[in-house]
Amino acid sequence: MEHLFTTLKMTKLYMKNICQKLIVVSILIIFLTSFNISLAVTQSDISEQQSQQQENNNKIKETEQKKEEVQEIKDETLKEVETLNSQITEYQGQISSLDTQIDDANAKSEEILGHARIEADAMIKESRAKGEEEKSKTVNLPEKYFLRSY
Question: What is the pLDDT of residues 36-59, one digit of tens each?
Answer without folding.
Answer: 666 666 677 778 888 999 999 999
